[in-house]
Design a protein that fits this description.
The chain is of the alpha/beta class and about 260 residues long. The protein has 7 helices and 10 strands. It starts with about 20 loop residues before the first strand and ends in an 18-residue tail after the last strand.
Length: about 260
């Protein structure tokens, strides 16, 4: 079945470069330790990400990729360092719940669909954070599932779908509330090569059509090569960045930043 545009109301445009170079994320010295400091998952990461970038994060297992994504997604708190979202400090007074509900979309390797809810119900889950009516939620989920080519599976259950189809449902769900950032942690990690290519094409199309900022963790250099910027990590640090931020000016934090 042909896959329709993700959101017809959004202009399709060249996404090869971040539009106005607005800083969506700025991190300085971001660190995370576990086990009382024995495990240094992230060690002083400095990073600037501009709105509209499609960033692939690569590196060996255990190098801190998921930790970085989890800190950016406020699923975990840093032990040290500063982190800004659109110039606002992500600290104890930052509303992480609203940020996760309205600004971010998440896609995980293991899909994380709810098995006892139908496909269309799964896609509607994040919409319960909005004040949309049941009809609006249904229509939005329907539109999203059409856009990922799953119109005929609306009332099916996740266990009835292939891995690739499940991940397409998860991608549809991640877009439910029109997030400005998509955080994807190895979204193709559990998929065969054909399904992986399918899901990657979908993510690339989302980026192109919506100019959404994407941070995608992957082990697969072929997947990473489709992003506009590649960040490589090792031992909790960024060791290379095709965006050229390594060794350049550190991020600037506003004077009134309380952190
Ligand atoms: N909740 C936790 N408790 C203790 N250690 C943790 C925790 N989460 C992550 N770690 C450790 O932090 C380090 C970085 O983990 P992280 O999950 O970020 O790696 P990764 O690069 O995503 O690896 P993979 O490619 O295998 O997913 C690893 O040594 C890991 O064991
Ligand atoms: Mg990981």
């Amino acid at each position: 079945m042909p896959i329709s545009p993700i959101m017809s109301s959004v202009a399709v445009s060249d996404s090869s470069a971040p539009a106005a170079r607005l800083r969506i994320f700025e991190a300085e010295g971001l660190s995370k330790t576990y086990d009382g400091g024995r495990i240094q998952a992230l060690q002083g990461v400095d990073l600037i990400i501009h709105e509209g970038e499609f960033v692939a994060i690569l590196g060996p297992s255990g190098c801190g990729k998921s930790t970085l994504l989890n800190l950016i997604g406020t699923l975990e708190k840093p032990c040290a360092g500063m982190f800004l979202y659109r110039g606002r400090a992500v600290n104890d007074s930052f509303d992480g719940q609203a940020y996760r509900a309205h600004d971010l979309g998440f896609v995980f390797q293991a899909f994380h669909l709810l098995p006892t809810f139908s496909v269309i119900e799964n896609v509607q889950m994040p919409m319960f954070e909005t004040n949309w009516t049941a009809k609006e939620r249904y229509q939005r989920a329907n539109e999203l599932l059409r856009s990922v080519g799953l119109t005929e599976r609306l009332n099916g259950f996740p266990t009835q779908l292939s891995g690739g189809e499940r991940q397409r449902v998860a991608v549809a769900r991640s877009l439910a509330n029109r997030p400005s950032v998509l955080l994807a942690d190895e979204p193709t990690g559990n998929l065969d090569s054909i399904s992986a290519a399918d899901v990657m094409s979908l993510i690339i199309r989302i980026h192109r059509e919506q100019r959404i900022t994407i941070l995608l963790v992957t082990h697969d250099p072929a997947v990473a090569s489709r992003a506009s910027r590649e960040i490589r990590m090792k031992d909790g640090k960024i060791i290379s960045d095709s965006g050229g931020m390594i060794g350049l000016a550190r991020p600037h934090f506003s004077e009134e930043d309380p952190q």
